[in-house]
Amino acid sequence: MGDSKRLFEEIYNSTKENTYRYIAAKCYNIDDVDDIYQNTYISVYNALEKRDSPPENNEAFVILIAKRELFKYYGLVKRITSHFGSRSGIDDDYKEDADTFDLEDSVVSKALLEEISALLKSKDITTQKIFFLYYYEGCTLGETASLLEMSESSVKRRLYGTLSQIRRLYGKE
Predict the structure, then answer these.
(1) Residue 47 belongs to what domain range?
(2) Domain for residue 93, yes or no?
(3) Averaged pLDDT, 151-160
(4) SS (HEC) of the chain
(5) What pLDDT, on a 0 to 100 scale, did the predictor assign at position 101?
(6) How many structural domains is the chain composed of?
């Protein structure tokens, strides 16, 4: 049991970033990335428990499991329920230190962020993935293009075009 836990930690530490980026690039909805990522590593752990020997290639082993998790997650039933179900992306657990809290700034900032978030969610999934990978994951434009299997110029055009739209609509802040 201790050996499989140690092996899991080693595999997790060496593959977590690339796996997260892979899932983000292949998912249908950015909101699903964390769920699929978690499911992937639960399945990795369970698979390691059943194996007699460690995998030959940790990266390939984890990516294969991630592919399977993506397939399971986006099965027909999941597609139907996610299309017709409702999701709330608003986090009500917003907390500030009482000494630094400025209600007006907080309301304006939160409202602006929600408007920009809604605008991004109205964009096609590829544009959403570009923003996610570039800003949230810190990928370069080249890495983003490679993960999404598109040219770097297409990634730039989508990113900069959407940023220009945001600036026009909401100011240059």
Answers:
(1) 2-83
(2) no
(3) 94
(4) CHHHHHHHHHHHHHHHHHHHHHHHHHCCCHHHHHHHHHHHHHHHHHHHHHCCCCCCCHHHHHHHHHHHHHHHHCCHHHHHHHHHCCCCCCCCCCCCCCCCCCHHHHHHHHHHHHHHHHHHHHCCHHHHHHHHHHHHCCCCHHHHHHHHCCCHHHHHHHHHHHHHHHHHHHCCC
(5) 43
(6) 2
Q: What is the CATH number of the domain that holds 60?
A: 1.10.1740
Considering the domain architecture, whether residues 67 and 112 belong to the same structural domain is answered as: no
The domain spanning residue 117 has which CATH number?
A: 1.10.10.10
User: Of the residues 48, 83, 118, which one is the last residue of a structural domain?
Assistant: 83
Given the structure tokens 């909805």, which residue do they identify? 29
Residue 19 is encoded by which pair of tokens?
Answer: 């796996």
Output the pLDDT for position 71: 83
**pTM passes above 0.85:** no
Does 90 fall in a domain?
Answer: no
Q: Which residues contact 21 (CB under 8 A, 6 or more apart)?
A: 133, 137, 139, 143, 147
pLDDT band at 81; cut points 50, 70, 90 = low
Q: What is the pLDDT of residue 96?
A: 38
